[in-house]
């Protein structure tokens, strides 16, 4: 039964009894309000009950921002965010957002307060990417607050997203790609093939590292199934998880590369047979056993950092243009686009969920193609 009690002169706590949840736990909601006496409290309680029926009453209306953040870390972030993303968000929140909002009551924070905070961050020298991350973190916190009924309104929806002028990524052009293929001929087999697949398959680093040599390779069709990725986080260490957008795609690879993979797999299996009982393989986070095409002899994954390191050594040793391992796949996509392949084909090959992501990455190529389109009618006019 809903009731109220005086907590101090002029202040009453109102408690609503709302039955039980699906787990049998009693549902109670509290609100503390100024009130003169018991007679007025009865009227307020009746109003609160009506407000709750109308969806205007919220739980834990006095929750402070720091407490909301602690609850977000446990109840929301692990289920909605990739572990790497969660670690980034926690760092941003604790280093730059909490100092300003720590003791603020969440229900009292207005859109203008968030806008002022972002403006202050900009004045203090935070760059566009830092501001964009702060905005994303605040949006995540308020999404949680709204879904878990700590607030009735998500005020962060009214805060404009900071404008970002995307950095143009570095790519290898056709000649530079040819140079890469030439210099990696002398590298270790696994390093050479990982680089080749990043280029010819337009694969992410973690996707290359997570290929299962028994279930993902189809030598009849010259295809590789991409549905998982190797990742390292501070909390979980090395793990194999689903791909970035949690979707599976099949990537066709040229027959020369597939023949090289076939030969490499045969050699890897022979090496594994020599150690027999020492080979353990690895497990996907869902418990599935994985036999990695590229990994340590006992079947455990390489560290993503080690892949970056051997690529950087190759770049330095052969005086290649300095780009990240991840940008090998973008170099490949840029090359395919320049060769006339459609944006849709490239989107699917890259595994982008939204074609606008693909288009935004390759505006430099689309501008060149537009110039070609502009000159296309010269043949007709002459």
Which terms would index this structure?
DNA polymerase, domain 1; hpI Integrase, Chain A; three-stranded antiparallel beta sheet; elongated; 3 domains; 382 residues; alpha+beta
Give me the CATH superfamily of the largest domain: Intergrase catalytic core
> What is the number of beta strands?
10
Distance between the termini: 89 Å
Would you list the SSEs in sequence order as H and E? Answer: EEEHHHHHHHHHEEEEEHEEHHHHHH
CATH architecture name of the largest domain: Orthogonal Bundle
Overview of the structural elements:
The protein is α+β, with helices and mostly antiparallel strands. It has three domains: 3-53, no CATH class; 65-158, DNA polymerase, domain 1; 174-354, hpI Integrase, Chain A (Orthogonal Bundle). 49% of the residues lie in helices and 13% in strands. It contains 16 helices and ten strands. It has helices at 38-53, 65-75, 77-80, 83-101, 111-123, 128-147, 174-183, 189-200, 205-209, 255-275, 304-317, 327-338, 343-350, 355-361, 363-375, 378-381, and strands at 3-8, 11-20, 26-34, 217-218, 223-226, 228-233, 237-242, 249-252, 282-283, 289-290. Strands 1-2-3 form a three-stranded antiparallel beta sheet, with helices on one face. A three-stranded antiparallel beta sheet has the order 4-5-8, with no helix packed on it. The longest helix is centred in the last third of the chain and has 21 residues, at 255-275. The model has no long low-confidence stretch (mean pLDDT 87).
């Amino acid at each position: 039964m809903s009731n109220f009690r005086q907590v101090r002169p002029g202040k009453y706590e109102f408690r609503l009894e709302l039955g039980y949840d699906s787990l049998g736990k009693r549902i109670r909601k509290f609100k503390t309000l100024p009130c003169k006496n018991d007679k007025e409290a009865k009227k307020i309680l009746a109003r609160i009950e009506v407000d709750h029926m109308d969806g205007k009453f919220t739980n834990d209306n006095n929750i402070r921002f720091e407490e909301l953040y602690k609850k977000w870390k446990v109840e929301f972030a692990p289920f909605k965010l990739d572990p790497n993303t969660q670690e980034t968000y926690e760092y941003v929140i604790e280093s730059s957002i909490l100092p300003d909002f720590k003791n603020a009551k969440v229900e009292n924070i207005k859109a203008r307060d968030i806008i002022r905070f972002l403006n202050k961050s900009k004045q203090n020298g935070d760059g566009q990417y830092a501001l964009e991350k702060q905005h994303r973190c605040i949006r995540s916190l308020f999404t949680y607050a709204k879904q878990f009924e700590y607030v009735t309104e998500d005020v962060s929806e009214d805060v404009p997203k900071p404008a970002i002028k995307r950095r143009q990524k570095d790519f290898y052009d056709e000649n530079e790609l040819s140079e890469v293929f030439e210099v990696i001929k002398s590298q270790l087999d696994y390093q050479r093939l990982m680089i080749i697949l990043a280029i010819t398959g337009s694969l992410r680093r973690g996707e290359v590292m997570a290929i299962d040599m028994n279930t993902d390779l189809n030598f009849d069709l010259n295809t590789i199934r991409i549905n998982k990725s190797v990742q390292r986080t501070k909390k979980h260490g090395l793990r194999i998880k689903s791909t970035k957008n949690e979707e599976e795609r099949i990537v066709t690879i040229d027959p020369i590369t597939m023949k090289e993979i076939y030969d490499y797999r045969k050699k890897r299996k022979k090496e594994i047979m020599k150690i027999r009982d020492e080979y353990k393989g690895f497990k996907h986070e869902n418990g599935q056993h994985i036999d990695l095409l590229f990994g340590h002899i006992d079947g455990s994954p390489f560290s993503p950092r080690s892949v970056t390191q051997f690529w950087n050594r190759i770049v330095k040793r052969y005086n290649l243009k300095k780009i990240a391992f991840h940008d090998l796949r973008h170099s490949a996509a840029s090359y395919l686009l320049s060769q006339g392949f459609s944006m849709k084909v490239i989107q699917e090959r890259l595994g982008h969920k939204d074609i606008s992501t693909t288009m935004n990455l390759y505006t430099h190529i689309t501008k060149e193609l537009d110039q070609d389109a502009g000159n296309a009618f010269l043949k007709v006019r002459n």
